[in-house]
Write a structure and sequence with these properties.
The structure is a homodimer.
Chain A: E1 12-16, H1 22-25, H2 33-40, H3 75-87, E2 90-93, H4 108-127, E3 133-138, H5 144-154, E4 160-167, H6 178-186, E5 190-195, H7 209-214, H8 216-229, H9 232-235, E6 241-244, H10 251-265, H11 276-283, E7 284-287, H12 296-306, E8 312-313, H13 335-349
Chain lengths: 362, 362
């Protein structure tokens, strides 16, 4: 990493994966949950059916903690390799998907316990140990009442900025989940959605990881359309949605498609009062990573087709295999747009982030 | 319809839905299949869980045959309302999805019989009665050996231009189906994919039709990526794929996404020898309908981002509710691009269409 000190502008990174080990969660769990992990080696069911892709699986090989612990498990190593080296102003922690309480199919009560334990562990070991790190409230969304209680319990922590919903096989716009949005809005928390490991091929998995990953934006579109057409943003007009880790290039066509469909089918959803593209502009943000390789001209065409330069936010996805470096991921886009993408769009999105705009030294 | 004689250029319409009634298929069926329809009123299982949308359900209200038969069931009415009035040079019949033999889950043998009956009915009543109409070979793709026999049987008919695969919940790139592509290539037949009624929401249906329809391109992306990453176009280098009825705006982002994924994951699919965007440019065509409402500038940006003006082809989707008129669907795009989209891209795609380029009278 020879990138140190090249950073010229504020960087707010909307997708950093800290990783817990089950052992670390034990002190935060009561029995019987503790015993299931300690005595029976319970682990969350895994979904991805693909063999390991590279030297470190889904992680960057060089991000493994030097003492052998998995990538993302150590704050000081992350500080050194990511935050200090790149010069982050702020980063949002999004968990490693294991555990992902909202993705658990069995026993909701254990999901609830794990969410609580995770949040306590996250606050104690990360949010209160580095000023730059902000957190995601993990919940067991399949049990909205418990999710609301957890949002009440930790949502007003000054470093908690969003409620995390995994993109799995539940469309979150369903009214069953609306109490979660009501609680999030009340606490000025964004809804952050990050894909877990959904079977995205008519409910099955395709043959190859490259196929699964190529159609990953599909699962994001399902969630955005679910939220919009179920009227979530009419019910909760201050709610914001961050769609994390599907890039942004799918957004322009999707805005056009939803608008065209809404024009001819809006009688079906009379509670939706505005054009979907307008709802996207006001309520939905997406992150760059994994960014498609684009020329400056192509990048700007996609932005123009959104009719807004405030939708796209930057993320690295550290420490995963397809990490995007802020120094290399994007073509030169001009000072104003780069400031928005690298920091200011995220700053507007998350009201708890520092309001100051960092002085550009260039 | 006051559109008559406004037509200034050749129009090749890649999506016209002729409709059969089960009664009409009876003479083309042997027993026991005939008896299942006649004696037990067998109909294909239906999938869409939504209430009827308008006066004529999924059809244009004014397209119902005046004697009460369903829209698309009568050649002379279609000639009058569509072909003569608009001035089609050619149109490709794609069936009405009922029956859709490749979408049937039960008893393959009946699907095979229905495909054969459908093709005979189509040839006799449509293809041989109007010079402008070209046909799709219906098959029972779930039984590739029978599908190959049916392609052998009718694929060399001079008016049969493609093999029809419904977009349902089977990803067609799977090697199990490759004999179909081998037979199609041998007969100079395009593979035409048209969505049937796939549960496109993690294998389920969303709450509303507007959601289902807004994410319809997802199922097309699944099929295109399945065909590309399973190496179909390397195995069958002359094969072409027409993706019908998901519009075209999803294509640029999807090309970029597949390219970016292929760059980092191509070790998984070493049989894929070229960038996916390059495969799309050479092998995949998409139809305009249901076209998103775009300004000329937006339309041209999407075309530019594909780096090819030969991918997009015109379709009306007659007689369905969201029919696109060639006089109103697209913004003005300039003579050269309009000629390509309205006719010449389709003419290149289907080698059996007349080669002459119609004189533009403007």
């Amino acid at each position: 990493m020879a990138e140190k000190k090249q950073q010229k502008r504020a960087i707010i990174d909307m997708d950093i994966h800290e990783r817990v080990t089950y052992d670390e969660l034990l002190p935060y769990l009561d029995n019987p949950w503790q015993r299931y992990i300690k005595d029976t080696n319970w682990v969350q069911e895994k979904h991805l059916p693909y063999p390991i892709l590279g030297a470190a699986g889904l992680d960057r090989a060089d991000a493994q903690v030097p003492d052998g612990r998995p990538a993302g498990n150590d704050l000081s190593f992350m500080q050194q390799q990511l935050l200090d080296d790149v010069g982050h102003e702020a980063g949002i922690l999004t968990g490693a998907g294991d555990p992902s309480p909202s993705s658990m199919n069995g026993w909701y009560e254990m999901a609830v316990a794990l969410a609580t334990a995770y949040n306590d562990w996250q606050i104690e070991n990360w949010l209160e140990k580095d000023d730059r790190l902000y957190g995601s409230v993990h919940i067991a969304a399949q049990d909205p009442a418990s999710a609301v209680r957890e949002i009440e319990r930790v949502g007003s922590h000054p470093k908690m900025v969003q409620v995390l919903l995994p993109i799995d096989d539940r469309p979150w716009g369903d009214p069953y989940y609306h109490p979660i949005f009501e609680a999030a809005e009340r606490h000025n928390l964004v809804i952050g959605m990050h894909h877990q490991e959904p079977p995205n091929y008519y409910g099955k998995f395709p043959r190859y990881f490259v196929e699964w990953h190529s159609v990953m934006p599909n699962t994001h579109m399902i969630q955005v359309s679910s939220m919009i057409f179920n009227g979530v943003f009419e019910k909760y007009p201050n709610l914001k949605l961050a769609m994390i880790e599907a890039g942004f290039t799918y957004i322009p066509a999707f805005m056009k498609k939803m608008d065209q469909q809404y024009k001819v089918l809006r009688h079906e959803v009379p509670w939706v009062k505005r054009m979907p593209s307008s709802i996207v502009k006001d309520h939905v943000r997406v992150t760059t990573q994994p960014v498609d390789e684009l020329t400056r001209d192509e990048f700007l065409k996609f932005i123009d087709l959104m009719d807004s330069d405030e939708i796209v936010c930057f993320s690295t996805d550290y420490p995963h295999w397809d990490y995007d470096s802020p120094f290399r991921a994007l073509p030169p886009l001009g000072e104003e747009l780069e400031q928005k993408i690298f920091a200011e769009n995220a700053r507007k999105l998350y009201p708890k982030l520092p309001a100051r705009e960092r002085k550009v030294t260039q």
